[in-house]
Hints:
The protein is α/β, with parallel strands linked by helices. The chain has eleven helices and six strands. It has a six-stranded mixed β-sheet with strand order 1-3-4-5-2-6, sandwiched between helices. Helix 8 crosses helix 9 (210-216). The longest helix is centred in the middle third of the chain and has 20 residues, at 129-148. The N and C termini lie far apart (42 Å). Adenosine-5'-triphosphate (ATP) binds at residues 19-22, 60-66, 117, 160, 162, 186, 190, 194, 197, 222-223, 226. This is YALI0E06655p. Residues 50-187 form the AAA+ ATPase domain.
Amino acid sequence: PSAMREIFLEKPSTTWSDIGGQSGVKEKLKQMVEWPLTKADTMKNLGITPPRGVLLYGPPGCSKTLIAKALANESGLNFLSVKGPELFNKYVGESERAVREIFRKARAAAPSIIFFDEIDALSTARGHSEAGAGGERVLTSLLTEMDGIESLNGVMVLAATNRPDVIDSALMRPGRLSRLLYVGPPDEHARQQILKIRTKNMCLGSEVDLEEIAKTTEGMTGAEIVALCEEAGLYAMSQDEDAKEVTKKDFDHVLKGARRGVTEEMLK
Ligand code: ATP
């Protein structure tokens, strides 16, 4: 029982403007939450059922979690988040109860969002002997809970994965995670936006050209670009402990060794 207390209601402060790029995803999610409230009649007339759940998929470090938090914050929804693997590790033997408890809390806090990060853990656990049965049972309780929620004014489920291929098809049926949204790696314009956001509070040398850096960071995820800015700052200090600004040289230096995690197969 003590472990159960760990699922807290969160109040994320992330805003849409904290996220570079992804304008299509932002727009679609806003509509999914706002239309059932403001355009209920139109939706009904056009035969559109508001979704109860959305699956965000795409490579790691490309803002799935940020997007879920911004949606909650900007649409005034309470936010509960759970990582798939936690359901097995933290709540050993009481995973199903944990799932019920999450939905209970979410209903009590409605309108709200439950964010299941790394949802693929449920499916991959099924394959292994020990956690296998557990994975099956957790999935079943998740499906039961999802089938029971009201879409309008109620609880919306957002799930995230970088392995959409292993997600159990039962989870994607209508009324469950029926909408799929691809959250891809940042293109050049998005990379420039991310750089702008991340360097807003950094003292930059006058010759630092974010447009140029955006061009040379092809293949980097959002998280890697954020890390690059931090490393540039650290490198500046390693050269001069009292550095006043981060210069083009610092960026050039860290760019040479920068990780570029976006691979071909991540692009859909
Ligand atoms: P994972 O699959 O690893 O959970 P994710 O897709 O959920 O990854 P986030 O956790 O949202 O990714 O992003 C990780 C970090 O990378 C963020 O906290 C943020 O600092 C940075 N980041 C990633 N994408 C963007 C973006 N588009 N704009 C601004 N920051 C970003």
